[in-house]
TrEMBL record:
Residues 30-40, 62-92 have a biased composition (Polar residues). It comes from Prunus dulcis (Almond). It holds the Pfam family DUF747. Signal peptide: none annotated. Belongs to the TAPT1 family. Coiled coil: none annotated. This is Protein POLLEN DEFECTIVE IN GUIDANCE 1. PANTHER family: TRANSMEMBRANE ANTERIOR POSTERIOR TRANSFORMATION PROTEIN 1 HOMOLOG (PTHR13317:SF4). Residues 47-57 have a biased composition (Basic residues). The keyword Transmembrane helix applies. InterPro entries: Tatp1. The chain crosses the membrane at residues 562-583. Its main location: membrane.
Length: 608
């Protein structure tokens, strides 16, 4: 016991020298790592037994604290008795105040709680005891934190509340981690009530909500927006301005194709006859020019195509298409139309190759003549093969359309609906540039001409085979085909322009380029010229009209038959030449007028 008292006096002296306990009564605890206690651990076994007995008899004392926080002064001084030894826990429970602490500190420390601290307590608070570090005479004290839980009750405001016991986590460096305080919970109704712009109708009655909806303006305001002048112009462009310009451009393109077709049937034969006449008249061979070689190549292609088509039995193909039930007529027509477009894209390149070889053959030196002749022959053979394939495709397409018109089960209507709406579906909902729309309009012009050739084929077939009154039915069906094609083209281009933000003025620019092409004026966009090869349609038309002429020839001896053939041929040639002159001069006049008008009004193209 003497050693133990000496150890206590020594600890008190160390604390006194550090100045941590000057005038106040101190509480100090000795840990199990105290060198003094460890030295006398074996000598104090009887004392330890007494302490254990006293520990069992230890009771907790309660001290009452006045309810008024202003009169409450709490100071805790713990005597050096057996209840505070060996790291035991002691607590003071009062009405409204509870202290709990754990002790493992070597160095003594004091804690004093004064009145102002309790005045600030609302709910649950935590006080931390600062560690006291001291060292003297080779004794090193370890620092640890002692946490005090203070639970204060406010009987006047909230009544008696049970406080939960929680301890604060200590880090290895001895610093206590501050406890995070929870934010105030979000009260949605209170927040919406405090909102000065509270416009929601969560608390409104149905009648009040309906009356507010009645007075809030446009009833579709939640799903639509107010338009502006630009939107209005866009609507009127789609409905009125663009259809007019689009149809005008397609019609002019149709007449350009028709003029090229008539040139093939009138100008080209005339030039070939004049070349042969000059050759026979001069009786000496002269190298032909590039234009003459080109005309000769086109005449060869057309002659081969007509000869092969004459060997084709149209009635057999007609019954094959009509009698099969596996594939519908509109499916056959759509497949043939796809191949037709492929040939339209490929055959111009083949013909350009032929014309290039003709140019090289006309201007080559004599030593390279053999090479250019073989090259021209190869290109000529390729052009003949491509044109014949295209001619058969167009003939099959014309026979399919004739089958639909003659049928009495609404096959024509099914064909028009499926074909035209498939065209809308495949074109409208795609992204197009201005150049692509330019090419698409030209394709529509060529398609319009091909439909005219098909209608002529149907007319010829009716002349040859129809019985009874057929002209009215044919006229109504032909008109239905043209009107449907025109409406579909207008709808297609109107919505393509709408979705791709193309102004109607672009179609006027396309028409200006087409007029310059008609006048043979070179433009910067020469690659966007209308390209049409009339060889395949010409072969089909000649193949169809030849039986009609043959059926009208009188039954007479051969000399008279040849005479009537020449007469019919001359009459046809004069009519076609007159039509060629009329259409050609009309296109030239219109093109000159339109180009001059555009040059005068460069910034306002075709506002009509």
């Amino acid at each position: 016991m003497a050693l133990k008292s000496t150890g206590r006096n020594l600890s008190f002296d160390i604390l006194s020298r550090n100045g941590s306990l000057d005038e106040e009564e101190a509480i100090f605890y000795r840990s199990n790592s105290d060198p003094i206690q460890s030295n006398h651990h074996n000598n104090d076994k009887p004392a330890r037994r007494k302490r254990k007995k006293k520990k069992k008899n230890t009771t907790t004392t309660h001290s009452s604290i006045p309810e008024s926080p202003t009169n409450a002064t709490v100071s805790n001084s713990f005597p050096h008795n057996s209840s505070s030894k060996n790291g035991e826990t002691s607590g003071i429970n009062g009405s409204g105040l509870e202290f709990s602490y754990s002790q493992t500190v070597l160095c003594p420390a004091t804690t004093e709680v004064s009145d102002p601290e309790f005045q600030k307590l609302r709910g649950t608070a935590e006080l931390r005891q600062r560690p006291v570090n001291g060292s003297a005479g080779g004794v090193v004290g370890e620092t640890q934190t002692t946490s005090f839980r203070i639970e204060a009750e406010d009987k006047e405001d909230s009544g008696v509340e049970a406080g939960s016991v929680s301890k604060q986590r200590s880090e290895p460096n001895g610093n206590a981690v501050p406890k995070l305080q929870t934010a105030e919970s979000l009260d949605w109704k209170r927040l919406m009530a405090e909102d000065p712009n509270y416009l929601f109708s969560v608390d409104k009655s149905p009648v009040k909500y309906f009356m507010e909806e009645m007075s809030n303006g446009n009833s579709l305001r939640s799903t639509t927006t107010l338009g502006n002048e630009k939107e209005r112009e866009r609507v009127y462009d789609t409905i009125f301005r663009l259809p007019w310009r689009c149809e005008l451009l397609i019609d002019v393109g149709f007449f350009v194709c028709f003029d090229s077709f008539l040139s093939l049937l009138t100008i080209m034969p005339t030039r070939i006859v004049m070349t042969l006449w000059r050759l026979l008249h001069s009786r000496q061979f002269k190298r032909p020019s590039a234009a003459e070689l080109s005309d000769f190549g086109c005449f060869t292609i057309m002659a081969c195509g007509v000869t092969l088509l004459e060997q084709t039995d149209i009635s057999l193909i007609y019954h094959m298409i009509r009698g099969q039930g596996t594939i519908k007529l509109y499916v056959v027509y759509n497949v043939l139309e796809i191949f037709d477009k492929l040939c339209q894209s490929f055959n111009p390149d083949v013909l350009q190759t032929l014309f290039n070889s003709a140019e090289g053959l006309a201007s080559c030196p004599p030593e390279n003549m053999r090479f250019w002749i073989w090259r021209f022959i190869c290109d000529q053979a390729l052009a003949v093969a491509a044109s014949i394939i295209h001619s058969f495709i167009l003939l099959a397409q014309a026979i399919t359309l004739s089958t639909c018109i003659v049928a009495h089960n609404n096959a024509l209507l099914a064909l028009l609906v499926s074909n035209n709406f498939a065209e809308i579906k495949s074109n409208v909902f795609k992204r197009y540039s201005k150049d692509n729309i330019h090419s698409l309009v030209y394709f529509d012009s060529v398609e319009r001409f091909h439909i005219s050739a098909f209608v002529l084929f149907v007319l010829a077939q009716n002349i040859l085979e129809a019985e009874g009154p057929w002209f009215e039915s044919f006229l109504s069906n032909a008109l239905l085909v043209y009107v449907c094609e025109m409406i579909i083209d207008i709808i297609k281009h109107s919505f393509i322009a709408k979705f791709n933000d193309i102004k109607p003025i672009a179609y006027s620019e396309f028409l200006e380029d087409l007029c310059k092409q008609t006048l043979n004026i070179q433009t910067e966009a020469s690659k966007k010229n209308l390209t049409f090869i009339p060889l395949a349609p010409a072969c089909v038309v000649i193949r169809v009209l030849t039986p009609v002429y043959a059926a009208r020839l009188p039954y007479s001896p051969l000399p008279w038959k040849l005479f009537w053939i020449l007469v019919l041929f001359a009459m046809t040639y004069v009519m076609l030449t007159s039509l060629k002159v009329l259409i050609g001069m009309g296109l030239q006049k219109h093109a000159s007028w339109y180009v001059n008008r555009c040059s005068r009004r460069k910034h306002h193209l075709h506002y009509d």
